[in-house]
Amino acid sequence: MSLQQWTTDLTGLSSLTQSTAPLPTPGDNEVLVEIHAVSLNYRDLEVIKGEYTHHKSITATDRKVPCSDMCGIITQTGPNVTRFTVGDRVLSTFLPDHITGQVTEKELTTGLGHPMPGVLATHRVFAESALVRAPSHLSDEEASTLPIASVTAWMSLSSRAREGKVVLLQGTGGVAVAGLQIAKALGAIVIITSSSDTKLSQAKSLGADHTINYRTTPGWDQEVLRLTNGHGADIILETGGAQTLRKSFECIAFGGLINCIGYTSGKVDDDDDEDRINVNLLTLRRSVTLQGIIVGPRDEFEEMVGFYQEKGIKPVVNRVFGFREAREACEFLESGGHFGKVVINTAI
Ligand SMILES: NC(=O)c1ccc[n+]([C@@H]2O[C@H](COP(=O)([O-])OP(=O)(O)OC[C@H]3O[C@@H](n4cnc5c(N)ncnc54)[C@H](OP(=O)(O)O)[C@@H]3O)[C@@H](O)[C@H]2O)c1
């Protein structure tokens, strides 16, 4: 018996190659999962292109299977497995050893797809402790989008977003659209930005209260203040980075929370004076909480799955590609044409 997989040598999307490998046997406390759907993240592109370099403890080695987020069915259990049985539908966790609490340096070195083997394959063995039960109201494709994008949005919002709080989301990628759905389900007021009016209309239909095109309104921070009568955003999901962080500080409310998540508009470079911003003064000026987010632990993921189930939230799958189209799927994500998530179905 064999499995199908994609591997990369981390030199770019053209290095993605399809191959077969022997089907592994689960060991103690492990299960074999037949992977049905793999959801792509911005990070996967960085890994494949050899640009995922900000965690110095994570180093590249040889060819590897990329990607971290999947939904599949357990087809075999190893000895002493107690959490699951054959036939259970499960989701991967991004950092398999991060079960609860604050992430540690050691747990950070266990990321799926880099440095550990990823999930862009038809089968993979997982430690049973590294899996979460998939919610029954979601398809495999929808459920596969939860491990990184939704958990990241959940960790940014769950402690503070509630009725009447203003949440600002940047762009309409995976994290932002999950953030929109979670924030609305928590009763918050949502402002979302995008470079595309079409995507902003899609965000409106998902419940966004206010939309701003950051291309045609480069002073979107001032627009956030105008829309909130000078109050600003109570919570910001800072996914933009270099071109957005300064403006986030201009439109954060007093006592607000800025979640530092990503850098789709580029990284703020320590060595570049032009990009450098005075985080010290900007943070204290409005008594801001600046919080770094690294996805979240398994117990928070499980709580979030319960929330999705209770509220009936269905993640937005923008486009589904077949397994043989993995490279095209990555190229589509790279083009930025998506709204929400891009998924690969291993069966088509
Ligand atoms: N720290 C963590 O735990 C964590 C977890 C997940 C993701 N991330 C990071 O968060 C970022 C977003 O991830 P993702 O998976 O949601 O990415 P994604 O799905 O690829 O989203 C890309 C979107 O970013 C938007 N964007 C680009 N430039 C922008 C700008 N100047 N201002 C506002 N939006 C801009 C675009 O939205 P429009 O097309 O609408 O303009 C684009 O479609 C990435 O940097 C990723 O590495 C971090």
Automatic annotation (TrEMBL):
Domain Enoyl reductase (ER) spans what residues? 12-344
User: InterPro entries from the xrefs?
Assistant: ADH-like_C (IPR013149), ADH-like_N (IPR013154), ER (IPR020843), GroES-like_sf (IPR011032), NAD(P)-bd_dom_sf (IPR036291), Zinc_ADH-like (IPR052711)
The terms under GO molecular function for this entry are:
oxidoreductase activity
The record, for SUPFAM superfamilies, names:
GroES-like (SSF50129), NAD(P)-binding Rossmann-fold domains (SSF51735)
| Entries under Pfam families matching the protein | ADH_N, ADH_zinc_N
- Identify this protein by name: Zinc-binding dehydrogenase
- Name the species this protein comes from: Aspergillus ibericus CBS 121593
Which taxonomic lineage does the organism of this UniProt entry have? Eukaryota, Fungi, Dikarya, Ascomycota, Pezizomycotina
